[in-house]
Amino acid sequence: MLNEREIESCYLGQFIPVHYHHNMLMDQNRMHGFKSAIDYAVKPGARVLELGGGTGVLSWFAAAKASKVYCVEFNPDMVREARKFLAVNPHGDKVEVVHADAFEYLPPEPVDVVICEMIHVGMLREKQVEVIESFKRRYAERFGGPLPVFLPEAVIMAVQPLHQEYDFEGFYAPIVQFQENTVIYPGTVEMARPAVYSIIDFNQPNELAYAWQGKFVVEKNGSINAMRFVTKNILAVVQERSTTIDWLNHYMALPLATPVQVREGDVVQVSFQYRAGGSIPSLQAALKAEVLYEAALQPIPACA
C-alpha cells in the first residue's frame, strides 16, 4: 500500500520510467555540463552524496576523484539499474547505492559535496528545492557546520511572453510544449524580452512558494497566447576564472487560458504563483496576462 508521499511521487514524476533516465544519458549537453562541474567541485579524496541518483552516472563522475560516494535512490527499479551499471564501470566500487527516501536519508558521516539532479523547468514536478532544504536542516542538526557544497549551486528562472502556434495538421490543440533551447521553431514568436522572476541559491535558505507579478513591453503586434519558462542551472561557480558551468533546461511553453491581443509598445502585466515541486497544471491555472497600458497611437504620416 503506497503512502501519501509515494502516491504524490508517482503523480509528480519521482517514479519516472527507466527509459526516461536512459534518455537523460543521451542528452550530451546535460552530461557534459554535469561531468565538468563535478570534476571541478569534487576534490581528490572527497566524500560525496547524491540525492536521487537515477542510473548512477553522476555518482560515477564523482567517484573518479572521491574516496566514497553515497548514491540515494527511491525508485527500486533505478536502484537495480544503477547497481548493474556501476558494477561494470571503473571506480564503480566506490559508489554505494542506497535504497532510501531522499527526504529522510542522512549519510553516516559528513560529506563535502551534495549532488541533486531532480531538476525540472521552473523547479516544478520534482522535489529539488524541498529535498535540499530538508537535507540542510537535518544535516546541520546531526553534523553541525559547515554545510557541503551543493551541485547545482544556484538556479535562475525567467519567463517570456510568446505567440505559439497550436495548429497540428489542422487540429487546434493548445498544449504544454517542451522545446530545445538550441532550435529555432517557426511556430514560436517571442513577443517581449524575458524577465527573471526568481534566483535560488542553494547555499542560502530558500522559500518553497513563488509568487510573481511583472511587466513586459511588447515588441510586436499580434497576440500573446503562451508564456515560456526558462530555467538556467548554475552547476558550479569557477572562482579562479570568474565564470560558471551552466546547464539550460529545455524551454517550457504554457498556453494562456485567455490570449491577449497586443500592439507594439503595449505594456502587459503577467502574474502567477506556484509551489516548488508542484504540478504543471497548478502553475497553468494561476497564469494570467493582461494589457496594463496601451501604446500611444502613432499618427499616420501624410502622403508627400
TrEMBL record:
Keywords: Methyltransferase, Transferase. Residues 48-137 form the Methyltransferase domain. The keyword Methyltransferase applies. PANTHER family: PROTEIN ARGININE N-METHYLTRANSFERASE, PROTEIN ARGININE N-METHYLTRANSFERASE 3. One of its GO terms (biological process) is methylation. Pfam families: Methyltransf_25. InterPro entries: Arg_MeTrfase, Methyltransf_25, SAM-dependent_MTases_sf. SUPFAM superfamilies: S-adenosyl-L-methionine-dependent methyltransferases. This is Methyltransferase domain-containing protein. It comes from Duganella callida. One of its GO terms (molecular function) is protein-arginine N-methyltransferase activity.
